[in-house]
Amino acid sequence: MAAALAATLSVPALAQDLQNRAVAPPAASDPAITAPAAADQVQFSAGSLEYDTNTDVVTALSEVRMFRQGDRLRADKVVWNRKTGKVIATGNIAVTNPQGDVAYGDSIELTDSLKDGMVDNMLVVLEQGGRMAAERGTRQPDGTMQLDKAAYTPCAVQTSDGCPKEPSWKITAVRITYRPEAERVYFGGGQFHLFGLPALPLPAFSMPVGAGSESGLLAPDFQLDRVNGLEFVTPYYFRLAPNKGLILTPHVFTRVLPMMEARYEALGTKGAFRVTAYGTESRRSDDLNTITPTETERAFRGYIDGIARYQLSPYWSISGSARIASDRTFLRRYDISRDDRLRTTASLERIDPNTYFALTGWYVQTLRVNDPQGNQPIALPELDFRKRLDLAGGKLQLQANTLAITRTAGQDTQRAFVSGQWDLRRLTNWGQEVTLTAYGRADAYNTNDSLLTSVVSYRGNEGFQTRAIGALAADVKWPFIGQFLGGTQRLTPRVQIVASPKIANLDVPNEDARAVDLEDSNLFALNRFAGYDRFEDSSRVTYGAEWSLALPGMTLDTVIGQSYRLSTRPTILPDGTGLSDRFSDYVGRTTLRVRDFVSLTHRYRLDKDGFAVRRNEVDVTVGSRSTYVLAGYLRLNRNIFPAIEDLQDREEARVAGRVQFARFWSVFGSAVVDLTDRSEDPLSLSDGFDPIRHRLGVQYEDDCIRLGATWRRDYQDTGDARSGNSFLLTLALTNLGR
């Protein structure tokens, strides 16, 4: 009895053999067949041919090939009964349909159209990827295949060395139906097998096998955290059209009410857009200014995130994005984003080889504690126009710009200016690169409610103000190139002289040039302020050098420089920026690359009096694509006046990495630590070692499955977004739930 049962159970296993067959699929054509065939005619070739005139049976032997309207068959032997139209093929059988799918079997019974029939011990290898195996399969005239006691997998069934292996996952079913025209597989009475673990029963369902998309459930996610409890995410995709889709994602929690997420996206001939919305109802903290915030009654909470871009013509485009949250802690509470500001913007642009035009507006929503929303800017509109011309052997760029900034409970500013910048670049006979620059600008400002701005240097004078700006500059580079250590080195001394008269900077407000800091990227800039509202009005000379070395498999670049202010008049640059004294601090950057394995960038600023490190920033990447470490460290030690909140000192360390310890297995992690203390920032709440968050996880990923588990811990409380642990389990399968 036991032996009989074992034999019975072994039949489906043999019938569901997903391994490759030792048969080459039939070629698209056969050299033995040269004449074109009629639509209803079967072409064939064989090593030998026998014909029984009494029974009207044709027997083809040895390397038999049959062709008809894109359907192809190869076999060792084919018996064709011309009276009944029945074709029986045996021995190394392979049948290919017009879509490129290949079916293998021990024996096959077809009609003489080659479009329908029955196959024993069938294996189907799909052109789009994936394969099916069955005890018996039936092929219908329209190409539909029905497989009984079957199995399906999109996974590889061989190792990289060509040895057979069990697929990472597969589905066995009582019946599988494959419809080539729909590129879809339908399952009935199915079971899911993962790494050979016990089977999980499945309801009747279908899934795509091609590159297209169809309506259906997507891969679920599971997450556990302290605030919301266990979270179960089950997205469902609605295919509205080939270029449109909607994803509805219920988020079900054990501790709070469910949340609904909806994402709609559409692609057109001129562009695309995507809108994502979240909505739920829960308690939230409205009072974030106290240590123990009070909680409101249950209220609606949500978030909208949209983006769009359309290319109206080769030169004209329109784009925009919207990010709006119902309250300051919603995004963190539900682990959607950790941004502290959200910006909504829209822009109309025209770009051609020599002209740029943009009409832009934006709105900012703050998510920071103790940051009044009424002080956030609403810019509508900003108009920017630029034109580039050839003039006197150089390039002239003209610019016109207007900007209107409104605040509901703060300072309002309107600005307009026109400017022109002419650059002439020449190479001398000695190899020096000389660039001459002339710059001029005329500004007009109007300011209201300036007393609502707390930092005096940012206010400007109330009412209408005008300002004129001018500057002349000469920049000389002299590169020297030679051999060194078997490679090539280049030393480039550089000197720049800038002359600019005194400018009425403090008469106008400062909206866009607050975060000024000397660094290697702006050392030789004409204006070392970041925006338009402030212009460096001191004549100065800037000097430095760049040295680079290129060796086989390695490059090293380093630059260092300093500037000296020629005038003695007071500067508007605050102490601590590295630019407030006549001699600036020393600033530099070093970049090292060793093949694709090591990348190191070090930026620094040294105090001119005693070489104290005022800025120390290191970013390192070591490793390959599969195993790597990323580390970063930043310390700003500038002793800037605390009222200038845009430039406060900070110290931070961050690390991330991934280690692949087996072919498909890897561990990963990351951490961010705030090292700032009160001696660096008097307003900081950090004690000098304050972890922000960390993450640690393990992941398995092969050609058709990604399975991972992640542990994350947040250390900061913000309203109802609490610190604590969270755990995330992810599972993604090729062709299933995508």
TrEMBL record:
Question: Which ranges does the record mark as transmembrane?
Answer: none
Source organism, top-level taxon: Bacteria
Q: Which InterPro entries match?
A: LipoPS_assembly_LptD, LptD, LptD_C
Write out the entry's keywords from A to Z.
Answer: Cell outer membrane, Membrane, Signal
Presence of the UniProt keyword Transport in the record: no
Which stretch is the leader sequence? 1-15
UniProt domain LptD C-terminal: residue ranges: 300-665
Q: Which Gene3D superfamilies match?
A: Lipopolysaccharide (LPS) transport protein A like domain (2.60.450.10)
Report the main location listed first in the record.
membrane
Q: Where in the cell is it found?
A: Cell outer membrane
In Pfam terms, one family for this protein is: LptD
- Which family is this sequence assigned to? Belongs to the LptD family.
* Free-text function comment from the UniProt entry: Involved in the assembly of lipopolysaccharide (LPS) at the surface of the outer membrane.
Q: Which HAMAP family match?
A: LPS_assembly_LptD
Self-association and partners: Component of the lipopolysaccharide transport and assembly complex.
According to UniProt, the name of this protein is: LPS-assembly protein LptD
The gene for this chain is lptD
